[in-house]
Amino acid sequence: MSKIKVTQVKSTIDRPRRQKETIIALGLKRMNQTVVHEATPQILGMVEKVSHLVKVEQA
């Protein structure tokens, strides 16, 4: 499996509760924080749902 780096670039203020929970499930707690995940279908699905709040790169 390849790895991806996910960085939160926009705030979750005034976002629906589901998007806030998805950001937390990805392990992001604050702006400009970066986490590394395996590129599983579950993680890629979560990233797609909040793609407007995060930046994704290959790790």
Q: What does this protein look like?
A:
The chain has 59 residues and is an alpha+beta fold. The chain is built from two helices and three strands; from the N terminus they run E-H-E-H-E. It has helices at residues 17-25, 41-49, and strands spanning 3-8, 34-38, 54-58. It has a three-stranded antiparallel β-sheet with strand order 2-1-3, with no helix packed on it.
Offer a quick outline of the entry.
Helices cover 31% and strands 27% of the residues. It has helices spanning 17-25, 41-49, and strands spanning 3-8, 34-38, 54-58.
Intertermini distance:
11 Å
Low-confidence stretches: none
| Count of helical stretches | 2
Broad shape: globular
The total beta strand count reads 3
Query: Which structural class matches the secondary elements?
Result: alpha+beta
Question: Beta fraction of the residues?
Answer: 25-35%
Largest sheet: 3 strands, antiparallel
User: Mean of residue pLDDT?
Assistant: 97
